[in-house]
Amino acid sequence: MMGGWGELILAFVAFLASHAVPVQPPVKRRLEAALGRRGYLAGYIALSVAMLSWMILAAGRAPWVPVLPWAAWQAWVPNLAMPVVCLLIVFGVGVPNPLSFGGARNDRFDPDRPGIAGLTRHPLLWALALWSAAHALANPDLAHLLLFGGFAGFAVLGTRVIDRRNQRLMGRAAWQRLAARSSNLPFAALAAGRWRPRRGPDRARVLIALALWAALFWGHAPVIGVSPLPAPF
Length: 233
What we know:
- By secondary structure, the chain is mainly α.
- It is 68% helix and 0% strand.
- The protein contains nine helices and no strands.
- Helix 1 runs antiparallel to helix 2 (25-61) and helix 5 packs antiparallel against helix 6 (142-170).
- The two termini are 33 Å apart.
């Protein structure tokens, strides 16, 4: 039993370190100088996926301790959440967004029409939070609640940390100008009437998000060992 919990703890510590160390400004500058921005981002994503996979597998090997009751409808929650998660990931990586990590061609960012960065400044972190919350509800045992609850807390806290760090690095006035039509909390700027869509078609990114969803859906059973298909009620 201790071996199972020990692996989960070790995997979680490694996951936190793999996300905290590479984004530190001195480390990030060295890595980008050696690998280029695209190489840095590709390496960061690959490392994140590897650490995430290890944590999921470690949670599956940990002792099973039920915490909350389970019903068949809970298996539907990740299936409903994952299309939104995939959209957040693809748009978070593929469009300009200097307000968080993962954006592309950030020099083209238009603060008056911020697109996904206006709906939330941190699409990748909110994708992680949504993915985590949905999977926690579908897997209400102790190991998975610790796993997915930790992910969700890490993601939400990370949005605040990045905002504070960017204000310090950019200067508060410059950051406020870039973030004027955006919000951390998803859709808050839209609800307040501050958001404007980004110029340019985004149909290709929607198709990429659909392809990502399909890959995750059909790859779930071979990789994780559990089918995402909900059982009939």
